[in-house]
């Protein structure tokens, strides 16, 4: 058993693994298995195969429901931005998964522990193990904490431009004047929070907060889109 | 509502759709929406985005569990063979989905109804609608009937060579003599069924049936692999 891993998952994420052999599999690299032939260990690749598909579905379903009018092309671009090596390696690091990987000596020396591709694999493998051990609802709850909040933090904003989408929606049947107005600016200089409102032909249709004016405008546009879709 | 579709799903698959609007969305092409602007219809692309991910997970999970020792590379190749335009368009046709697609006149003339890419899209969109309306268990039950049996029919055998896998497993720790022996040959000439047994160093380890000797040998190897994995 990998020392400390089950305890960390319990302490940090409230996850109580039943079958810890799945966890061992998810955190074990082929190089470690090769160095310990007598232990008949499994390495993470099969379980990563499953975890990859679990992530695809959970992220797809979340995006599909969160953005009920976003066209397929934008959903796909956003999913590709979230389900990728760059994002997953960051999530793995944030969860301290790097500290628990079982590596062979050669790979350890080659600093594989900090390699983005390996961290990404381990994150997917962990998701596969979590899915098998605890089911989809627990996976969704885990990624609701680790992955989805990054949308609100603006990690993927360059893939999703709410302001452009709002403009397209409002101007599809003719002209409409859209303006963004600063409502508030709070906090110290290095931790400023802006509140921006968006107006369509002089009528307020949304408000949002952010760490920059631009981020707050995107949030305001997003809130306006949500409100318009309800009508 | 698309005439006959809900009834067909009830009669042929025992599926009782609650929200038939999802079905309409899944079977409606953008060209039809464009020709009927007043009806404010949705076309299938968003729901297909979801259905694609649902298929990925359901097929991955099935393969992961059915082949507990198959390495990741083979699992991925097999999944790619199953989750692809060629397979999905055949499944769509087999389910008569082509008869229910709502197309614009131009696309109808261009014979889009029989285009593999469109049939594939519709199959994925249907899976997305089924998932939203009935949940994953019903999707699994549907594809257990439409998709998974194709594995046993040998549709994907060229992606999965059980005989080679058995040989690799048996000979990993040294030499082992593997032989295939015909046990039976039944039925008329045009519908022959062969039964083949596989022996390892003279001991029988598996038996399988098939429409050809080769298919029966693959089945025998597959059964031997299953039995060996249990030990």
TrEMBL record, chains A, B:
Pfam families: dsrm, Ribonucleas_3_3. Its cofactor is Mg(2+). It comes from the Bacteria. Its EC number is 3.1.26.3. Keywords: Cytoplasm, Endonuclease, Hydrolase, Magnesium, Metal-binding, mRNA processing, Nuclease, RNA-binding, rRNA processing, rRNA-binding, tRNA processing. Digests double-stranded RNA. Involved in the processing of primary rRNA transcript to yield the immediate precursors to the large and small rRNAs (23S and 16S). Also processes some mRNAs, and tRNAs when they are encoded in the rRNA operon. Digests double-stranded RNA. Involved in the processing of primary rRNA transcript to yield the immediate precursors to the large and small rRNAs (23S and 16S). Processes some mRNAs, and tRNAs when they are encoded in the rRNA operon. Processes pre-crRNA and tracrRNA of type II CRISPR loci if present in the organism. This is Ribonuclease 3. It comes from Ligilactobacillus murinus.
């Amino acid at each position: 058993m990998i020392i400390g891993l089950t305890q960390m998952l319990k302490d940090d994420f409230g996850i109580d693994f039943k079958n810890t052999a799945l966890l061992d599999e998810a955190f074990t690299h082929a190089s470690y298995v090769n160095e310990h032939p007598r232990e008949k260990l499994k390495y993470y690749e099969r379980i990563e195969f499953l975890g990859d598909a679990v992530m695809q579905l959970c992220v797809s379903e979340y995006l599909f429901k969160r953005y009920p009018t976003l066209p397929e092309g934008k959903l796909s671009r956003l999913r590709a931005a979230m389900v990728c090596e760059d994002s997953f390696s960051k999530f793995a690091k944030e969860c301290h998964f790097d500290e628990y990987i079982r590596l062979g000596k050669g790979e350890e020396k080659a600093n594989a522990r900090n390699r983005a591709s390996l961290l990404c694999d381990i994150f997917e493998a962990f998701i596969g193990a979590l899915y098998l051990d605890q089911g989809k609802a627990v996976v969704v709850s885990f990624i609701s904490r680790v992955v989805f909040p990054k949308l609100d933090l603006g990690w993927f904003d360059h893939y999703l431009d709410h302001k452009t989408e709002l403009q397209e929606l409002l101007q599809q049947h003719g002209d409409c004047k859209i303006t963004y107005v600063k409502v508030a600016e709070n906090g110290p200089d290095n931790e400023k929070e802006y509140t921006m409102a968006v107006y369509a032909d002089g009528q307020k249709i949304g408000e949002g907060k952010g760490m920059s004016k631009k981020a707050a405008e995107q949030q305001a546009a997003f809130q306006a889109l949500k409100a318009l879709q309800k009508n």
